[in-house]
């Protein structure tokens, strides 16, 4: 099911790009070619803009919905995206993913229309600017929702027992505003 969440995030982020450039690897001065052992690069400190699980999925929400679950912040290729994998003991686990960028917000209508044509979805009334849910039976549900006071889109993969509308509203309410 996390693959489906990633698909939703990719669809919503269509047209988004990152301006990050990879820096060339440095070689130690005076080292002969082929004799220097490359050292592991130090991970870059996240920028203030970098979305993280702490920014998109507050501790209060974690405690309310997934108390004692292990939350893993998955690395993302852009600073405007974050994905939190949740090991909660359910067969499929859970995922909270968000992308906050003007192109993501602009993709709402074509994304929903495309999904209506290709998937059995239900629109969720009263959730953000727009929201849909794909029921996966006992495996849970996948919610795709766009925030109404930011440029954020979330993809939420949750167990079947969780109220999709309430959870989506709670997650959207905690997102960073424009």
Strand order of the largest sheet: 1-2-3-7-6-5-4
User: What would the average pLDDT be, to the nearest integer?
Assistant: 78
How does the helix and strand content classify structurally? alpha+beta
- Uncertain ranges: 1-32
Order of helices and strands: HHHEEEHHEEEEH
Shape: globular
C-alpha Rg, in Å? 19 Å
Could you tell me the strand content as a percent range? 15-25%
Cα end-to-end separation:
30 Å
Helix percent band: 25-40%
Q: So how many helices?
A: 6
Tell me the total number of β-strands: 7
Q: Could you give a short account of the major beta sheet? A: 7 strands, antiparallel
In short:
With 178 residues, the protein is α+β, with helices and mostly antiparallel strands. It is 28% helix and 22% strand. The chain has a domain at 1-14 and 55-79 and 104-149 and 162-178.
């Amino acid at each position: 099911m996390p693959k489906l969440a990633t698909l939703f995030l990719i669809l919503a982020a269509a047209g988004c790009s990152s301006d990050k450039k990879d820096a060339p690897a440095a070689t130690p001065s005076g080292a002969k070619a082929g004799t220097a052992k490359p050292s592991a690069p130090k991970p870059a400190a996240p920028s203030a803009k970098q979305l993280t699980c702490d920014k998109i999925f507050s501790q209060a929400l974690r405690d309310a919905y997934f108390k004692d679950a292990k939350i893993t912040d998955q690395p993302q290729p852009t600073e405007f995206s974050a994905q939190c994998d949740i090991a909660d003991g359910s067969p499929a686990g859970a995922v909270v993913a968000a992308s906050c960028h003007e192109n993501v917000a602009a993709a709402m209508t074509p994304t929903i229309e495309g999904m209506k044509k290709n998937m059995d979805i239900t629109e969720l009334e009263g959730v953000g600017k727009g929201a849909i849910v794909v029921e996966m039976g006992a495996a849970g549900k996948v919610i795709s929702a766009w925030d109404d006071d930011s440029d954020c889109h979330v993809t939420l993969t949750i167990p079947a027992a969780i109220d999709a509308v309430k959870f989506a509203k709670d997650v959207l309410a905690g997102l960073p505003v424009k």
